């Protein structure tokens, strides 16, 4: 019998169920059901199927993959008014269902919640500027989420510290503490905390109380909440930079439905809602509201009529509402990098480039071989585009393209160009200027046939930089050639396609530094006794 794969996205975990595939349109014709007509009767359903009573599973023809979604809205439509907000009892019921009929465990839910918190923080507050993180954890599940988040933040490049005043003796929480201690993440007592958080921390994570908390906070959390509030108020008055405050699910001191009723709760810069926003989040006025994790199974979304934003790609978090309006002139990064000094560099700039390129590879940066190629045609107008470096050695830097493209025409008119590499994760740039020539036909042929066959066909189809009536034309031509060469025969390289080599006559290596005092070391050629040598010069930033 064919089987139906049903993927359920749980509150803090995804799961896949394999069920016999039964067409909802032809259920009476199934031989297995004729002999066992009670297959799906209530009395015979396993617990997880009983939970789905009244919910239609819609098979996708061909793949037998079924996903139940909470809404057909696109991401751009999800402002804060479009999202469903949960009342306290609803949030409790959903958690009970996840850990009951759906079979989730507390540690699974906590792990995904903490990861969601850490990824949300990384979306806005990068470790280059906000590295010092203090996470204050309460005694319950919210505190456990904070402990998990601290571990992930460590792996993301932050320097977390944890304050966990009321430790829970349960093995789950003791294990989380052991994991942090194994990473040498410091634990601070309330007495060890500095009097002024702003001097020692860039981010304060409020993981003290979640949606199930009732009553007034007791010591030492009442005093900690007050210190959060005082920190914000004092710095608002004197205009100094203060640590940003991130609250997990509920800002501590808030009522889960009514919000900051008495004005005695934490006013956060970021709120990370888990499962779905709680009712109090309607009154959140901070600049960053995120929904954390892909926790909600379709059945729960249907049962509670949840409307939630879709998660992009593989992300564990998604923004709710529009990002705050940003003053572009205020956007700046205060780079923190090792010094880049003259006595540290290689005498040959190609060797220095190789060292930095290897660093970019080791850092797993995306497409470290991407470079901006700038050309100027006979009209004197510059143009730039991103191309991919395909090789470099003592003779120069090589890339491949269509010779009849805009850049190809510009290089035929003016064979001087500049290439620029930017490696954001390392705060580095390399600029190279030089003279450009075509590589040999043999080199172009060799590289062309090393490419995937799809890319070879694409190079024939694309008359680069020319106007096409529509994308469908490219697809039609591609399909024709794909069928033509379906027998595996050699695909001929177009005569107008090949490589270029830039022979350098200038290098500049740039390393970002604090207060815009960047390191800029330039290599320029000069002759010594008739031999070409490179001279290293420092340029003003």
Summed over residues and divided by their number, the pLDDT gives a mean of 85
> Can you count the helices?
13
Oligomer: single chain
CATH H-level homologous superfamily name of the largest domain? YjeF N-terminal domain
User: CATH first level of the largest domain: which class?
Assistant: Alpha Beta
Question: How many strand elements?
Answer: 20
Class derived from helix and strand content: alpha/beta
Tell me the strand percentage band: 15-25%
Name given to the CATH architecture of the largest domain: 3-Layer(aba) Sandwich
Radius of gyration over alpha carbons?
A: 30 Å
The number of domains: 2
CATH topology of the largest domain: Rossmann fold
Shape: globular
- CA distance, first residue to last residue: 70 Å
Helicity, as a percent range: 25-40%
pLDDT under 50 segments (min length 5)? 1-77
Main sheet overview: 9 strands, antiparallel
List the helices and strands and how they pair.
Elements (H helix, E strand, L loop, with lengths): L2 E7 L4 E7 L10 H5 L11 H4 L14 E2 L21 H11 L7 H19 L7 E6 L3 H15 L3 E5 L7 H12 L4 E2 L14 E5 L13 H18 L5 E5 L21 E5 L13 E5 L5 H6 L13 E3 L29 H14 L7 E7 L5 E7 L2 E3 L2 E7 L3 H8 L2 E8 L4 E11 L2 H8 L4 H9 L9 H14 L12 E15 L7 E10 L2 E8 L3
Parallel strand pairs: 1-3, 4-5, 4-7, 5-6, 7-8, 8-9, 9-10
Antiparallel strand pairs: 1-2, 10-11, 12-13, 12-16, 14-15, 15-18, 16-17, 17-18, 18-19, 19-20
Helix pairs in contact: 4-5, 5-6, 12-13
């Amino acid at each position: 019998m064919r089987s139906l794969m049903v993927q359920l996205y749980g509150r803090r975990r995804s799961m896949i169920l394999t069920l016999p595939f039964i067409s909802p349109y032809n259920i009476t014709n199934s031989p297995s059901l004729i002999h066992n007509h009670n297959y799906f009767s209530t009395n015979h359903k396993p617990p997880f199927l009983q939970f789905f009573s009244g919910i239609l599973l819609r098979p996708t023809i061909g793949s037998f993959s079924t996903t139940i979604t909470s809404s057909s809205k696109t991401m751009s439509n999800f402002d804060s008014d479009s999202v469903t907000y949960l009342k306290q009892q609803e949030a409790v019921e959903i958690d009970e269902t996840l850990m009951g009929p759906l079979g989730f465990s507390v540690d699974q839910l906590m792990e995904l919640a903490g990861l969601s918190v850490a990824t949300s923080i990384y979306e806005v507050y990068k470790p280059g500027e906000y590295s010092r993180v203090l996470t204050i954890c309460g005694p319950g599940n919210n505190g456990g989420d904070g402990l998990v988040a601290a571990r992930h933040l460590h792996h993301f490049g932050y320097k977390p510290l944890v304050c966990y005043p009321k430790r829970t003796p349960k093995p789950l929480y003791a294990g989380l503490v052991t994991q942090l201690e194994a990473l040498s993440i410091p634990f601070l007592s309330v007495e060890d905390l500095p009097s002024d958080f702003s001097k020692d921390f860039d981010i304060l994570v409020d993981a003290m109380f979640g949606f199930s908390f009732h009553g007034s906070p007791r010591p030492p959390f009442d005093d900690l909440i007050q210190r959060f509030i005082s920190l914000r108020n004092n710095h608002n008055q004197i205009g100094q930079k203060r640590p940003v405050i991130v609250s997990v699910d509920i800002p501590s001191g808030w009522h889960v439905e009514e919000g900051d009723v008495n004005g005695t709760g934490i006013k956060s810069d970021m709120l990370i809602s888990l499962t779905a926003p709680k009712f109090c989040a309607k009154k959140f006025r901070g600049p960053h509201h995120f929904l954390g994790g892909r926790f909600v199974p379709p059945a729960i979304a249907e049962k509670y009529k949840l409307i939630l934003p879709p998660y992009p790609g593989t992300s564990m978090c998604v923004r709710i509402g529009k990002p705050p309006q940003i003053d572009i002139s205020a956007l700046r990064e205060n780079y923190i990098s090792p010094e880049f000094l003259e006595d540290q560099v290689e005498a040959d700039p190609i060797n220095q480039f190789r060292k930095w390129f290897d660093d970019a590879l080791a850092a797993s940066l995306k497409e470290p071989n991407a470079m901006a190629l700038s050309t100027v045609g006979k009209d004197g107008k510059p143009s730039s585009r991103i191309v991919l470096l395909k090789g470099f050695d003592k003779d120069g830097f090589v890339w491949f393209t269509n010779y009849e493209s805009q850049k190809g025409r510009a290089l035929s008119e003016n064979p001087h160009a500049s290439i620029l590499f930017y490696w954001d994760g390392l705060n580095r740039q390399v600029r190279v200027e030089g003279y450009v020539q075509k590589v040999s036909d043999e080199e172009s042929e060799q590289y062309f046939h090393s490419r995937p066959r799809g890319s070879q066909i694409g190079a024939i189809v694309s008359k680069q930089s020319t106007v096409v009536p529509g994308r469908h034309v490219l697809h039609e031509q591609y399909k024709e050639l794909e069928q033509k060469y379906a027998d595996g025969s050699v695909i001929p390289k177009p005569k107008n396609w090949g490589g270029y080599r830039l022979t350098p006559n200038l290098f500049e290596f740039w390393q970002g530094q604090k207060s815009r005092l960047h390191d800029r070391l330039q290599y320029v050629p000069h002759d010594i006794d008739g031999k070409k040598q490179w001279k290293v010069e420092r340029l003003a930033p």
